[in-house]
Structures are given as structure tokens and as C-alpha cells.
Amino acid sequence: MNYKTENIKTITVSKALKLDCGRTVKDFPLAYETYGKLSDTKDNAILVFHALTGDQFVSGINPVTKKEGWWVTAVGPGKAIDTNKYFVICANVIGGCMGSWGPKEIDKKTKEPYGLNFPVITIKDMVKAQESLLDHLGIEKLLCATGGSMGGMQLLQFCTTFPKKTFSAIPIACSSSHSAQNIALNELARQAIMADPIWDNGKYFLKNTQPKNGLAVARMVGHISYLSEQGMQEKFGRKLQEKADYEFSFNADFQVESYLRHQGSSFVERFDANSILYITRAMDYFDLSKQFKDGLAEAFKNQTTKYLVISFSSDWLYTTKENKDIVIALNASGADVSYSEIETDKGHDSFLLNESEFLKTLKAFIDSMYEKFKK
Amino acid sequence: MNYKTENIKTITVSKALKLDCGRTVKDFPLAYETYGKLSDTKDNAILVFHALTGDQFVSGINPVTKKEGWWVTAVGPGKAIDTNKYFVICANVIGGCMGSWGPKEIDKKTKEPYGLNFPVITIKDMVKAQESLLDHLGIEKLLCATGGSMGGMQLLQFCTTFPKKTFSAIPIACSSSHSAQNIALNELARQAIMADPIWDNGKYFLKNTQPKNGLAVARMVGHISYLSEQGMQEKFGRKLQEKADYEFSFNADFQVESYLRHQGSSFVERFDANSILYITRAMDYFDLSKQFKDGLAEAFKNQTTKYLVISFSSDWLYTTKENKDIVIALNASGADVSYSEIETDKGHDSFLLNESEFLKTLKAFIDSMYEKFKK
């Protein structure tokens, strides 16, 4: 993984940030990207939070990987989140590896990458770091904030930690508390990385290498969990990979095997193994109710933000039930909340795909919020 | 993994077996165990097929691992499959590692373990090898044959390959054709093993070692898939492992992490990594309909065996839908079939647990079959 980072926009967060683990940090980099133009009245800003393996390059072509931005289906000129109309902001999370402060950044003390000397961070730490970006951009109140998966978890944290910072919020396919199954899947990914001797207790960077095998297996875990059983059956079934019959070997006979191997091996080119450890840990530690004595009801108390919660029927990673629990808690707190379950067999991945009902729902809500918020 | 194998019963299969891959083999070992006593009229024999990581030690104490047999909940004196009344037989599958012909056995040609020189086998190969055991025991027709998971797949194969060999059959939590998701999970397990440099293209036995890290990760994949989301949430939730709060480290903070690590590390003591490769491959290749020109309808044509298909409501590995598809195909072929879906949140694991509705169903069916079959 050798990024050319000259095109990455970065701020230095100079405000001291007290991390949940107890350490205080300051003067660390936060990389970000923006799309569209901020209006003179600053009433059209939308903050997007990215998921586990995402980054700040939401739309257009990612200048580092040269591939399309991860949410190009939803964000861009004329898209559901229309960058001709709205100013879209996304920051790379701390703990990440696309220019923000993370385990592959240089520790000023040792002059080497942090590796496992990087502190274990939380979703709250990520969100607090991103508040500084809004200050930097001079945005007091966002029109909307949104995110799917871990992005949704950041959003829920953002809305409770900074209750006045956004007019509206769209948590997508997420949870207010990471489930046992999701902790288990993350642990599986971490163990796959840590089982690779190249990982070497996080010090692989000393040899300018990556635990590629372990990281590829970790990525395969993700890809299986992002699809639904039915979706996988429809997409791959038992189709063979360019062969007439079984090969009676351990090569990739089935298309689904070939797909997973490809996803695994291409991922290691663009992502840092230690970042997976840190970000999955932050997800596992996420439990909004634990932060408040009276749980979720207290977390969402006095919210003036207008919510739309979206889930996908075949998502087994962040189930409809988990998303509905957010709606129930928001309702119990008297918040303004609506809810949409999108019927699809595409599983958790749906929020990244061209799912027209989802994109229409997204667009309609944001446009109506703008009508209310614009100055 | 160093077994003391002196107590293992074994036959040598002398009949030539033409494997699906094209190779023909003979004079190979097949390890087995029996429980209870075969009646003089030989009308009380029940054949049990084991699952991926099972073996022939169904009940009592496994003489090798010194732990309880894998189906002690269902098989034993006074149990649902009552060994005071029935004669229970179980063989270790070929490809396995509990005494049957498998990759850790010595290749007479090279005087070394086979490793990857072992042929890629199929469920049909496993079942054909086991027919020789019935010949050896002098059993022409079984009262019943049963098995869960891969055991159920072997059973379906057995009933179609040897349609006159069993009076009744109970396929449990299985499928007539391995799904894309299940192929994907097996591929994940294989890649975890093959990613471990100790695996060394299957030649780890030369150094008298095992790819422990990779094999442990592979086992964790299994354990996640055997439980249901709800079951995991109830069993583990976000409970911490003997600590008051997060440790802000990569140690096992959560009980579910500790559980998975334990399952992984204890598994490497009792199972051979190459066996996992071979057995998962056999499962992936299983597609009963592919063996018959007219698919499943032809597979089950002229069946006189009486079937009871059992599935578990929260099993996402071998879903109720997949089990119902077997029932539909049997019905379409005019077979005698009944079906029971057990309501439980315990997932695929249910067939190994003390699930009283399941065990009652099993007992009632077998006892009623015995009333019809006994001489």
C-alpha cells in the first residue's frame, strides 16, 4: 500500500481532544474532501460519515485509488445528494489510513509509524475529531448529516454529542449498540490479521510490507456479511468459474470463490491492516446507551434534529430490528423521526448500490429538509 | 494433534471404490464405532452420518479426546436414539482424521502422509465407502439412517445411491445442494488455513506441526455460522470477560471474543487442517440434482424409504427453505415424507443441543418406524 497523498486535503486539529481511553491528543491531521459549493448563507452543507473501509472520497474519482468514490451511487451532480445544490463534506476517520491520524501515521516521538502504539479509539473520538473540521469550514449548523453502517453509528454519536449541529439526520443500516454477532465477525477479521506472522505485532511497516494473506481473509469475512443469503444465491448460486465441471482441486471452481479471492487480494492494495484492527475495535466498543445513565432515552433527550432512519429488509448485519430500536428510542424521547424499510435482497451492501427506492427516499427527505432549513 | 488410536475400530475396505474424481482406490481403512447390540433379526440398526468436524464417537466418552461424544444429547441408553433398544453405527468419513482414510494417513507409495496428494473426494465417495461397513456388519437393511448438516447431505446421497438400504431416514438441518453462502463460508475457512505459512501447501506434517493460527480462524468461522444472531445476543450480548470496563486493547474484552478464541485454540488439538480442506470441498461439491438428468425429482424416484425432514427456525446456514425444498422434491416424487420445523433461537447448532421438542420428534419417529420394521 503506497499512496500518493499530495492531493489529499488535510487540516491539523489543534484543539486538544481527550480520547475515551484517557489520553489527550492535539495537532493531529484530519483528511477530508468536499463536493459542490457552500452557499453564502451556509445552509446547504451535508456531512457524510464513512463506513469501516470507506474514506473521504465519496464521489467522482478517488485521486488515490483511481477508482470511483464509494458512494457515487448517491452523491454527485444530479444524484440523490445533489452536489449541484448541496455542499457535501466527508472526513477520513481517525484510526483510518487515507491521510487522517491513524496507526500508519508517523509518531513524532519515535519517528516511526505508530503501529500498536496508536491509542485504541472510539466512535465518539472519531466524531469529536470531525467537529473541528466543521469549525474549520465555518459551518455552525449542517443541513443534514448521514452515513450507513459505521457511518450511521458515527452519526448517532454526533447527534447526541453535538445536539445542535445538524438540522436533520439520516442514519442508514446501523445500530445504537454493536451486537454480539457483529463483535464476533469483527473479532474474526482481527484474528485473521493477527494470525498472519507478517503482521508481527503490528510492526510490519518496519519491513515495508503488509500481512496480505491475513488482511485478505479479513476482507472476505466482510464481503460475506455484506450480502444476503438470497442475494448471494441469485448472484452466484453454484455457477462455475470459466470451467465446464468441477476441477477436483482447491482452485476457485465456483464464481463465489473467485469473487471473494478477488475482493480480498485487491483490498490489500488500498487498506492498512492495523487500521482494520483499530476501526473494528471502535465499532465493537460502540454502545450509545452505555454513555448515559438512563440509556438511549437519555441519549436522545431534547433532540431537535429531524430524523429519517433507513434499513434494508435482507440486511442481517444491521438488522431491521436494530434499526427499529433506534426509531423506538427516538420516539420515546419525543424526537421528530420517520422510518423507512427498503425491501431488497441485496443485504447490507444495499446502501452502496443503485437501489432506486432507497435513493428516492434519500433525495425526497433531504430536499424537503432543505425547503425548511434554507435561508 | 497426536492421537492414541489403539482403541479405534477399523475395517479395511477391500472392494474397489471408483471416486468421482476418476481415481480408483481399495484396501483403505474406515474407522467406526457402534453402540448397543444388534438384534438377532438385525432389525434395529441405525446408521448415523457425522458432520464436518464430527467423528465416529457419537455417544459416551470419546476414547481419543476424552470428551463426550458429539451427539450424546440424542444417542445413548434411554436417549431419543436409545442404545438399550437400537444398534447405532457411525463411521468416520473418508477425508477425515479419526482413523479413516484421509490426508493425514500414510501413502503407501511415498511412506509419508498424503497431504495434498490425497484425492479430492465427494459426499458420494464418503457414502460409498460406508456401504462396505454395512456389508462387514452383515446388515442388509437399516431400520433408520440419520444425520445433521453434512451428515444430512450424506444421508440424502445414501438414500439415492442405495435406495433399498434403509427403511427410514431423518435428514436434519441440511440441503440437497450447497448454497453460494455456504460455499463462501467454506472458502473463507480454507483461505484462513492456506494463508497460514505453517500450512506449507499441506506439508506441515513433515515438521510434525499444524497451521494452528489458520485452523483456529477457520473454526471461528464455523462457530459464528452455527449460532443465530438472536441466540448470540442472548448468550453473549455485550457482556465483558471478567473485567469492569473496556480495556482499550486488542485482548478479549467481550465474552463472545473469548468464546471464539477458546473454540479456535481447542479445535487445533483434535483436528487436522488438511481434513478441513477436503471435507469442506466435498460439501461444496454436493449438488444432488446435478447427478441426475431430471434433477431432484429423478434423484428421489421410486423411494420406498420413509422420511422425516427436520429443520430449525433460526438456522441461517441450512435454512428452513432449503430443508423444505427437500420435502417438496420428495413429495413430488411420491415419497413417504413428513416434515418438522423446530422453533428455536439456537441456530444450526440446535441439532447437537438438548432441544426437547427436537429430541421428542426424533424419538417418536424412530420408535414408530421400529414398530413397523421389527421382525
Report what the structure shows.
2 copies of one chain form a homodimer. In chain A, α1 crosses α2 and α3 packs antiparallel against α7 (273-285). Chain A is globular. An 8-stranded mixed beta sheet of chain A has the order 1-4-8-5-11-12-13-14, sandwiched between helices. A two-stranded antiparallel sheet of chain A has the order 2-3. In chain A, strands 6-7 form a two-stranded parallel sheet. Chain A has 10 helices and 14 strands. Chain A is an alpha/beta fold and 375 residues long. Chain A has 2 domains: 9-178 and 288-373, Alpha/Beta hydrolase fold, catalytic domain (Rossmann fold, 3-Layer(aba) Sandwich); 183-279, Rna Polymerase Sigma Factor, Chain: A, CATH 1.10.1740.110.
